[in-house]
Request: fold
Amino acid sequence: MLSYSGSSDYDHKKVTTLRLSEMKKTGRKIVCLTAYDALTAKIFDESGVDLILVGDSLGNIFQGHSTTLRVTIEDTIYHTKAVTKGAKRPLVIADMPFMSFQVSADEAFRNAGRIMKESGCAGVKLEGASNPILKGISRMNDAGIPVMGHLGLTPQSINKFGSYRARGKDPQEAEQIFNDALALQEAGAFAIVLEKIPAELGKKITEAIEIPTIGIGAGPHCDGQILVYSDMLGLTVEFSPRFVRRYAHLYDVIKEAVHVYTEDVRDHNFPSLDESY
Ligand code: KIV
Reply:
């Protein structure tokens, strides 16, 4: 049975970007999960999670799409508002949806500001490190909008790459990812998600930059780890890449509970008189 027991290691202070950078310095791992609603966010807060990402994975997990591309700014604001209601201690970061930050630095800046202002989150995340994106990050940084980068496998580029294979396995791609990490740091990002890259590359980047790295399939050397919550809780059963560890099997638990409920209702076992007025 795995449960958070209120260890003395846990600190109850509100998590800030400054706190994350201190955690990198002291070697305390940064614990991150995705969430898309208030109830789940509250449970993760009470379980000691440091950072909650309202990932555009909500397009897959919540909306049932096959990619993240159809998520809109309105969807992001809606879900992030709910998460900020439920999560008090963790840093809440909203993922900028596809085409909300690629057109120009100006548009990215405006959209990031709108997401923060309307949802109450503490910062945004965006994928990639092209020049217009770096320019956008600098402007956000100047205006006090904390930005998290995302390198390696970037799901919004699925139609360009054609698959969700690991990135940075060949030296040229590895060098590009490494240089992009330096560029994101230079532009003012406060942390970088590294997705599905070799552990050695995750280590090299983590050692080379001063801002925290958050790994998902990027090995054990990153400063923190993130997983999509429905994967680690065993709600998504068909998706099982090597980097997902299942800490529960909620798909089966929920199915069994709902099955018993359907039987109780059909067999006139629910509600009883004790459960009535
Ligand atoms: O959208 C998302 O959930 C993400 C995480 C996988 C990092 O970007």
